[in-house]
Amino acid sequence: MDLQQLIRNQTDFSLEIAKSVLLKEAKDCNVVFSPLSVHVVLSLIAAGSKGPTLDQILSFLRSKSNGELNSFASETVSLVLADGSQSGGPRLSFANGVWIDKLLPLKASFKEIIDNVYKAVSMQVDFQTEAVEVVNEVNSWAEKETSGLIKEVLPPGSVDSSTKLIFANALYFKGTWNEKFDASKTKDYDFYLLDGGSVHVPFMTSKKKQFVCAYDGFKVLRLPYRQGEDKRCFSMYIFLPDTKDRLPALVEKVASEPGFLDRYLPSEAVQVGDFRIPRFKISFGFEVSKVLKGLGLVLPFSGGLTEMVDSILGKDLCVSSVFHKSYIEVNEEGTEASAASAGVITLRSIRLPTKVVDFVADHPFMYLIREDMTGAELFIGHVLNPLQAA
């Protein structure tokens, strides 16, 4: 198995979802989401699918087989998402959970994958009479796994007596900047909005060298997080268009140009002139199912999930919804971010050379958090107004 190739596939998937979310689903609000979190929920669903449904999920995830998806999930959890806080690196936690109707036994082969590959906790519950309680249980689980940042991944009414299975995962990340910003230097400046207006927001600044590259029409900033004792290196990247209204065009370019991230990420620190980054805090939730269907992934929502339960009812299982909720806070110390996804299964009824670079993020920009050794994308989003928290 070529982990690098699998991560390139995950990057392509991540950017396809990002393009749809940033340019259509949430083009007018701040966004944070975890493509990795969504990828794992779809991989879990694939593990219990067969026939055309499985083929469509594999094609959508750019994968050849369930075995490849399972290997990717296993390697990612052990190599990328292991907690590094004990050795001074970022604090990370990633958890999977499965809630199944108490009358439906899981197939032994599927249970083995859930337990051993995805390390998921599985609970038997009563959807018939306790649907509201199950929603509360899943939400409490997500809140605990994201250190209280995600309080509601499943909205009210998302589970009813026809629900048979819920898959959920939660990702938590807290990293400290390699070079913290001095909070006493943070000052308010104007941030210019897409509609032509502006808001006064706190901007962080620094005179230290920064990883910045200027290209034709945009600049890219890399802000590394403090590393632990292992080789992993996490960074936040900010993609800033040169003009105040060009973010949609830049998102289109990042998401559509093959190998964009391999070519346009800064690798050396340079002297900066005017350097300002806004503090921001974003909470964002959406129904991923709508985005997935819009991108052509439709068969899991009508059937084909025959490999999950050992029951005649298995032939009628389908995905009803996939929900996702994320949170991110960026300040002088570093970044705290989390995400939770839940899939509900129901019964069917040119680089420009320059010496001193200015980087003033005073208008809408795109950002992502990735692990640089592997290239795995943990979070993607855009900031349209730093004062809007939700």
From TrEMBL:
On the tree of life, the source organism's domain of life is: Eukaryota
**Cited PROSITE patterns:** SERPIN
This protein's GO CC annotations: extracellular space
Show the SMART domains listed in the entry: SERPIN
The protein's UniProt keywords, in alphabetical order, are: Protease inhibitor, Serine protease inhibitor
Q: Does the keyword Ribonucleoprotein apply?
A: no
Protein name from the UniProt record = Serpin domain-containing protein
Q: Write down the species.
A: Protea cynaroides
